[in-house]
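tool_log.txt
---
The assistant was asked to compare two proteins side by side. It first ran the structure predictor on the initial sequence, then on the second. Raw inputs and outputs are pasted verbatim so the downstream comparison step can read them without reformatting.
(1)
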Amino acid sequence: MNIRKILSFAFASALLFNVACSDDENMEFETPKGAYEKGILISNEGGYSTPTAEISFVSSDLVTMESKVYGKNNNNEILGNVLQTIGFSGDNAYLVSNVPNKVDVVNRYTFKKQATVTANLEGPRYIAFSGNQYYVTNNNFSNVKKLNVYNKDGNAFVKSINFDRAAEKVVEANGNIVVQTDGITYDSNYNELPTGYTITIVAPSTNAVAKTVTLPSTGIIRDLVSYNGDAYVLVSGTSDSYIYKINASSGAYTTTTLTGVAKAQRLRIDSNKFYFINSSNKIYAMDITSTTTPSTPLVTTTGYVYGFDVIDGRVFVSDASFTGDSKAYVYSASNGSLLKTLTTGIGTNGFYKN
């Protein structure tokens, strides 16, 4: 055999061996964090007078479903009566229960409980995080309307910030804490009325009010979300509805008018698109920069939408039952086709990417 061919073959083999070894040495293997990683957590509110709140889980491919996640991983402990919302920080999930007044801190991937927080909670509603602190709104729809501040290390209570009319949704935007401090009240005939039109910005460095943003006095503030460092407020009117984009540092805002959309109820943002629901439980989608309101709904639901979110191109809605299992429906965010029907828990009210 030609000596040059032998040497060339030997060199190529050695090079291939070295590359293969190098790739193996640099390869990183991801260790699973727990059974509930890379899926959707579903919050089940439970019955107001019965302790039936719980968590369901569905895998990202919508194939694997598990119910009563909290109880199964905490010695069958009862979560509570009214699970209001879930927030995330690091490896922990914070389960905010309106009844009883508590926040349960669990590992978000194993659901093992780490702590229970009760200090100064009176009708806890929603939660947000900034730095080493977390913020919980409290609203008993009577005399308590406040934002509680806690340290994440040890969950120690720091202080409360009181508001005049409401303390509802709360989000973090560009490092600041943005609070919905107005919303809905009712007259003697149970007709909806606005309490006012304020959104309050709290500076985490001082835990004091930095700015109060007063929006136009039209409609009722319905929702507050955070997206790409800005806060977005949904206000519903009797003829049109409005989305206000608020700079969380300056308090300046711009307006998107949802022409012809009366009494819009919910707002979510995913992949630079708004998703909202009208009073007839029809779900609409529009580009975040568009000035033209869509005339055709993405999804027309068959029941009342109680829980609603849009996660990674899929729309999640629940038709909640408070006497038995609820139903949840998953739709494509691109064409509105039904992807999956899920059986969840009592009073399904939220969906969260884990």
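(2)
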Amino acid sequence: MSEPPTPTPTPTPAHRRKRSLSRRGVIGTAAAVAGAAALTPAVFAATESGESGASDSPGTTPEKFPATRTEAATGTGGATTAFAASYVGLRWSGAQEGAAIRLANGDWQTLTSGCATVEDGGTALVAAQNATAYEVKAPSDVTDVRSLAIDTTDGPDHTFKVPSEPTRVRGVRYLSRPAWGADESKRYKDGKVNSPETYYPLQVITVHHTATPNGDPDPAATVRAIYEYHAITNDWGDIGYHFLIDEAGTVYEGRYSGDDGIPAFNPDGDLVTGFHSVGYNSGALGIALIGTLQENGPTAAAKASLIRLIKVISRFKGLDPQARVTYVNPVSGVKKDTNTVGGHRDYFDTECPGQDMYDLLAEVRAAAAR
């Protein structure tokens, strides 16, 4: 496969609360931290007490999530939906900026590509505030406009088999794909996997923000919306990031990496290629903080989880978070002198990960190196 393109919290219903998961990954025994060449199930798996080497199959518990509902539209003009939309995902060809959207009874919003950058136009994910109608307009240099209304909160129940025991990445608990309600059928198109997995050695870690509203009352629903937007609207076949982190510091498993119970990596220790930094995806791990961090920094909990996750992955793979390196795209051969831990804007013309988050990266690197 070629290099892929790359709101104050309130109590939530039981099916949206953060869940405990099965053992799907502790990065590291002491030997692994020193830079093991392969991720084996014994290295990655752990019991609740943190003992490595557990080999028994984890139990699962059926849990219900609202199935994602969508309605697609093409071109400019007005569109209505049969449900209240959580988000509207858009993609267009031509100029990167210029398209605009107006939600029912709202003002026009000029769209700019947020984090989900593409080479042949622009994309945007717009919080729809439960609108049931919207209108799109675009200048003459923007063509092939497509939009998708997305509801991830009020659809019919969809049951998933969620691992019963907590999942940790070397002490960082994370929600696996089934635990946030990832519908794996969305990875398929015309009966085939839309984005077959490819794996390359890890070289760099790239930090993003999702450019969605802060104070998110239901971040798992937002993760499902981003999944829909990336997999369907952008036709990437999956969510673009390897991990996401919400304002409470909860970590979510992102891009599907196989059925071996290892998030982001395969058993040989290679990273599954994501869709988070166009032209610089293969060998680059993407971590997205949920929210908009342009004028507001991450919460203390989110920053702490980001630092811990980067520290774990860096130690496991023998990376120095404070180093300067030359990234070499293993698919295209493109080279880039950059930081081991950088921001999306280091690779592409974008505000991502937001100015406030970008200004904190030196602190994050130093903390992850300790």
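---
observation on (2): The domain at 173-369 is CATH 3.40.80.10 (Lysozyme-like). The CA atoms of residues 66 and 154 lie 6 Å apart.
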